[in-house]
Amino acid sequence: MTQLPTSTDRKMGLVIDLDTCVGCHACVISCKGWNTENYGAPLSDQDAYGANPSGTFLNRVHSYEVQPAEGHAQLIHFPKSCLHCEDAPCVTVCPTGASYKRVEDGIVLVNESDCIGCGLCAWSCPYGARELDQAEGVMKKCTLCVDRIYNENLPEVDRFPSCVRTCPAGARHFGDLGDADSDVSKLVAERGGMDLMPEMGTKPVNKYLPPRPKDNVEDQIDILAPLLAPVAEEPKGFLSWLDKTLEKL
C-alpha cells in the first residue's frame, strides 16, 4: 500500500467559483484535448459517434436546479475533478503504489506503468473523480496539468492548468492553497470557500466558492424595456391602412 506524505511543501489546487461558472464545458474540452495529446496515455473514446458513446474525461460539469427557501430557482453548474485530497484514500488503497501524492506540491498522480486497473482507487474515492480508460486499462485522473505548470518552454501566462487557462468566465483559479497570502487563499477567505463533502475526512485541497444570493426579479430593472416599447400607440400611414384592411377580412 502506498503511504501518504506527512506534509507537503505546497498545496497546489483549484478554486472554482460556482457563482461565475456558466456551464459552457470549455474546461472539459480543453482538458480532454491537452491530456489526450500530452501527459500519459491518451484519453480514449468508445463508439464516439454510435448509439452508446462513452469516453474518459478528467473533468466533468454537472448542472443542477436549486430551489432556495426564498426566491426563485437557480441553475448551478458544478465542475468536478480530482480534489487532490490531503488524506487521499485513493493513494493508501492502491496495491501497487501506482497512485501517489507528491511531497513538493501535494498533487496526486498515477504512475500508469505500475497501474493494473484494479479499480480500488475509484471505489475508494468519495467524489467519483477517477475513471478507468477502457482502451489502456489504466486509471486516469486530473493531474493539475503537471506537464504545463512547470514547463519553462511555455510562456509564463500558459503555465496554468488547461481548464484554468481556457475558462472564458474566469470561474477557475489555480495556486498554492497552503500559502495564506496567495491569491487563491485570499479568495477562499473573502468568499467563504468550502470543502466538498467535508464529512468524508479527506481534507480536499480544491475549494468551491458558493453562489452569491440573487436579487429578486421583481426589483430588477429591464434595461431593454425602452428599446422594446412600441414607437407609437396607434399605427399611422400605410401601416394604419393595412391594419384597417386586415380587420375587415
Automatic annotation (TrEMBL):
UniProt keyword 4Fe-4S present: yes
Alphabetical keyword list: 4Fe-4S, Iron, Iron-sulfur, Metal-binding
InterPro entries: 4Fe4S_Fe-S-bd, 4Fe4S_Fe_S_CS, ET_IronSulfur_Cluster-Binding
SUPFAM superfamilies given in the database record: 4Fe-4S ferredoxins
Domain of life assignment: Bacteria
Gene Ontology MF terms: 4 iron, 4 sulfur cluster binding; metal ion binding
Native source species: Ruegeria atlantica
PANTHER family: PROTEIN NRFC (PTHR43177), PROTEIN NRFC HOMOLOG (PTHR43177:SF3)
Protein's recorded name: Tetrathionate reductase electron transport protein
Pfam family, one: Fer4_11
Entry annotated with the keyword NADP: no
Domain 4Fe-4S ferredoxin-type, residue spans: 12-42, 73-105, 106-135
